[in-house]
Every structure is written in C-alpha cells, then in structure tokens.
Amino acid sequence: MADLGRLNQLKVLYSTPHGIYLDGGDHGEILLPTRYIPKGTALDDLLDVFIYRDSEDRVIATTEKPLAFVGEFASLEVIGVHRQMGAFLNWGLPKDLLLPFREQLDKVQVGQKVLVFVKLDERSDRIIATTKLNKHLSRQPVPYRKGQEVSLIIANRTPMGYNALVGRTHMGLLHESRITMPLKPGQEVKGYIVGTQPGGKIDLSLDASGYQRVAPLTERILEVLTANGGKLEFDDDSSPERIRETFEASKAAFKQALGALFRARKIRFTRPGIAAVDVREATPSDWRPGLR
Question: Looking at residue 292, what is its pLDDT?
Fold first, then answer.
C-alpha cells in the first residue's frame, strides 16, 4: 500500500499520454505525470516516488522530494495566507503545504519562517503542518551528554528565553542569559547541551563552555590571522554581530580566546585590532602590566 506523505516504491502498471500509472494498493492506480518519469522507465519497473494529494484532492505521485515528510519537523517559509483556510508554506513541491488556523499556536505572516511538524490530518486525510509541537516530540530518554554539540531550530519566544528543537526529536530551552545573538522562530543554529533536568527538560547554550569553546576558537583566530597576513581588525571592542558572523562565537567567548592567545604571547593588541607575534622577537608593545 502507498503511504501518503512518504517515499514509496511502486510498480509501473501502464502508460498514458498524461504519464504512467503506478500500483498504489488500497489507493488504487496513482498517476506519475510525464514530466516526472525517469528516463528509461519501463513497464513493471519499481520507482521511488513521493505520494500526496494534488489541488483537486487526487492522490498523485512525484519523483521530487519535499523539504519534510510526514512525521518530521522542519523550518518552512510562509508564502501566503488564506483568510478562511490558514497559511501556506513552501515545502519544495508545486502544491504548497497548508498550516490551518486551528493548528497555529500563534498567527504567522508571509515571509516568516516557522517550525512545524508535518502530519496527516485525521479529518481530511490530507498532509498538513502544525505548530503544536509538544505531542509530536520524542518520548524516549534524552540521548545527549553535557557539552555535546547539537543542531537547533528555534521554536518560539518564552518569558525565560527561546524554546528550540534539539536534533529534531526533543525540545530544549535557550535561557535568556545564554542568548548571544539575535534569534527568530524557524532559525537553524548550532548549539550545545548545558545539562538535563528531571522530566527530560534540556538546557541549551549557543556556545560551548570553558576550554571546550576557547581552544577551538583560538585556533580559528590564528587561522584567520595567518590568512590575513598576520593582522586582523578584530579585538575585544569589536561588535558581537561581527564576531558572530566571522567566528561563529559570542563576544564573551571571543574575548576569552584573545586573552588566552595574549597570555601565550601569540598575539599583541594594536588598538584597533590584533597582530600575530613572532615568538623569536619581543617588542615593546608586547608588555602589559603583570607580564615579565
């Protein structure tokens, strides 16, 4: 049987001027339009196709793949809003994905990216999206360890910070105190596990902690310094936005890394900027109070 909203391997039954028909089991014969037929396809071949309903509510096949299948989370862009039906999302197929008003926790606007779960609607047997995420999260024990790097999708703003989907399975919290860059719902970012709490709650950070974040960052700064001829127009007065854009780190982490490089006598401050230090040559500008 062909499953709506998923990839299926279906057998070619016969061809018509409009395309070929596939064996869809309980769904009957399913049309694969001509423009999607792979070159060299023959009768009785098995084709990998995605099954969904077209604008006339007919079950149809395509060899194109959406940005998310049924049963998956995804960050999708709102490309239209219908006053009676809801919002329409771009999910990579000619027919847009409906996010009904009844499935929206907060109203969405055109151009906005939203974190949704793709599911089959029990009422219509159509594929729809929902922003009511909690009941679709994994109920398995949290599989992450402290300090582990994870992929995040920002879900929504809360009084304490931002909820974020962790690894597309669990929900975590980026506390206000750990937010080091502008965030918005639907944004995909890299994060780190700070810890877990009873009940499966996950505390998150945008930066690794302690040496774990400083050591790789110092290496990155030295790489950029070398690539720029030993000089760089960055120092601890640089804006957080510039630092994040270039080094993918917070300003606090960047300042820690600069301090570590300075103490190791690998850089000197040129105010503005920094420069690499040749350890074979000491210069007057290398001196700072407390150094000998």
Answer: 42
Question: Which of 272, 255, 270 has the alpha carbon at shortest distance from 207?
Answer: 255
| Cβ contacts of 277 within 8 Å, gap of 6 or more | 265, 266, 267, 268, 283, 286
Of 112, 124, 62, nearest to 88 by C-alpha is 112
Q: How many CB atoms lie within 10 A of CB 87?
A: 27
- How far is the C-alpha of 71 from the C-alpha of 128, rounded, in Å? 11
Give the side-chain half-sphere CA count within 13 A for 264: 13
Q: 37: which residues sit within 8 A by CB, 6+ positions away?
A: 19, 20, 63
For residue 117, CA distances in Å to 48, 51, 130, 170, 177 come to 23, 18, 5, 13, 28
Nearest Cα neighbor of 215 from 175, 266, 272, 178 is 266
* pTM of the model as a whole: 0.72
CA distance 4 to 66: 12
> Is 238's pLDDT higher than 60?
yes
- Which of 63-72, 180-189, 191-200, 219-228 has the largest mean confidence? 63-72
DSSP string covering 97-130? EEEEGGG-SS---TT-EEEEEEEE-TTT--EEEE
For the cut 90, the answer to whether the pLDDT of residue 170 exceeds it is: yes
**Mean of all residue pLDDT scores within the chain:** 87
Q: Torsion-angle region of residue 219: left (phi > 0), alpha (psi -120 to 50) or beta?
A: alpha
**Tokens standing for residue 125:** 């047997």
Task: Check if the beta carbon of residue 129 is closer than 8 Å to that of residue 99.
Answer: yes
For the stretch 49-67, pLDDT in tens is 999 998 888 999 999 999 9
Measure the CA–CA gap between 18 and 92, rounded to whole angstroms: 22
